Amino acid sequence: MAQFRTPTTVEEVLASRVISDPLTLQMCSSIGDGAAAVVLCSPEFLKTMTAPKPVWVGASVMVSGTPDASLDPAALRATFKAYEVAGVDPRDLHVVELHDASAPSEVMYFESLGFCAPGEGVQLLRSGATDLNGKISVNPSGGLPSKGHPIGATGAAQIVELTQQLRGESGPRQREGAKLALAENGRGQVGLDGAAAVSTILHA
Q: Is the pTM of this model over 0.85?
């Protein structure tokens, strides 16, 4: 489903045009066109129909951003509330889709969303723990630098990707044994914070 599917070397990424030093073109997501749909129903209604393997919503939390710098950013407030509502520990997640509009965002979220301790994001990445079949597979879709950023459809596309993962329908992108997933998405700007953020916990 990604816009950019050709394997790219580290050298090619570093040699691409500088967008905002030190970020190069291939470290940044491109704006794209796209559409995605999510159908929700009650467990009772589900019993009346023949449907694919269901995926359950453990929590879905949306918060507004704030210019108050004393508060955690919107993405953190939404995500940690979702953990609380769903009763899950971030280190128990199997697969995650993060809003990585530029490449460094992913590593920063490793730390801020509790996948590892502060200062250990690069180490987590280099360990292979966030690879496709690592302990916590992050952005098996390729993330926004690979699949593009269709703005309004980005968050729904994350949910679709994770639904396929939890159903075992992701083909070469499949994270084996995926049972617990997180989608984190946000947009806009209020001061130094995002204007809004939404985090969703899904489970098989």
A: yes
